[in-house]
Write a structure and sequence with these properties.
The chain has about 350 residues and is of the alpha/beta class. Helices cover about 35% and strands about 25% of the residues. The chain has 9 helices and 10 strands. Strands 3-2-1-4-5 form a 5-stranded parallel beta sheet. Strands 6, 7, 8, 9 and 10 form a 5-stranded antiparallel beta sheet that branches.
Amino acid sequence: MSSSNEIMYCLIFDTNALFQAYEKKADFTTFSFNSTFENVIDMINQLDIYNQVTVAIPSVVWSEMEKQIIEKHNELLSTYKSTISKKRFPEYSIQENPDIDYPEYIKNKIAEYKKEISVGMNKVIEIPIASSNRFESIINRAFGKLPPFEGKDKKSDKGFKDALLWESILEFSLTHCNLKIIYYSKDNAFGESLLKEFAENVSNSSLFICKNESEVKVQLEAWAKEIDKYSYQPIEEFDENQEILDWLKSGDFLAQIIDRNFDLVEKGRLITSTTAHLISIDNIESLSSNENAIEYYIEVALQFIYELKDGGKTKDTINVGINVKMLDDAYSVEDAYRMDEDEIESES
C-alpha cells in the first residue's frame, strides 16, 4: 500500500466516547474503554490503514477515566455492601476481602491497559496536557466564556476540562506538520467555532469533529481512499445488532421514550404537543443474555420538538443512555437518562 510520509493521520478520542456505563454492568477489578474503542480500531484495521492512522488518547481523558471509575467504585461499593448486609441465601457465601487502596490499585490496572493497547499493530499515543504556554489562552476562554468554556446558554463556567482538552489538541497540532485529525467527541461544546479556530491557527492541517461511530466510519473510509484508492475496500455493512437497530429507528421506540416517565421530555402548560426524533445511535452493548431475554445498554442522541400554544416551536437535542430488554422478540425501554448537560436549544 502506498502512502505519503508528509501526512499524519490521527484519530483523537474524547472521554465521552470511551466511558463505561458502570450503573448497569460493572467490573471494578480491571480497566478498559467501552466497546466503541474496539469498534473504531476494527474499522481502521478492516480498511488496512493501521500503519497510517495513529490513535491518540489525551492525558486529560486518561485522568477523567481514572476519576470516573474511582468515583463509581466508591458509590456502588457502598450500595453493594448495604444490599448484601440485608439479604442472605443458603446457596451463596460472600466473603469480604481485606481493604485495599483502590485508587492505587486501579492506577496500576490502567497502566497495564495502556501497555495492552499499545503492543498491537495499531499505534496508540498519549497527547500530553497543554503546557503553561497555553495558560493565558485558557484564562481568556474562561473570562470570555468562549467555546468550549461557555457551558449551557453561556451562563456557566462549566467546561474547564473541555478547554484544557482543546488546548492540548491545539498544542499537539501546532507541534506536528500536515496533520489530518478526526476528533471523536459527543460534546456539543465542540462545534463550528472551534473548527474555525483550528483552521485559523493551525496551518497545513485539517480537523473533523465526529459525534458518533457512523461519522467516524465515513471519515476513515475517506482517508483510506486518499491513502490508496486502488486497494480501497469499504467497511462491510454486516451488523449483528441489525434487529435492535431497526427497532431503534421505529415509531415504537420513540413512543416509549415519550410516553414513559424518564424525565427526558419537558412538561408545561404552554406545550401542546411533543415529537421525538432519533439523531444518531452511538453505542450498543449487550449486557446479559439467556434463553428468555437479552439486556442492552445503548447511547443515542435524541431531538425533542415541542409545539407551543402561540404557534412557535422549541427544540431540545440531548445525549441519552438507555437500558433495553428484549423478551419474546419484543423490545422494552427499561430506563433512560440524560448523559450530559450540554444540550442544544433553539427556537423558531
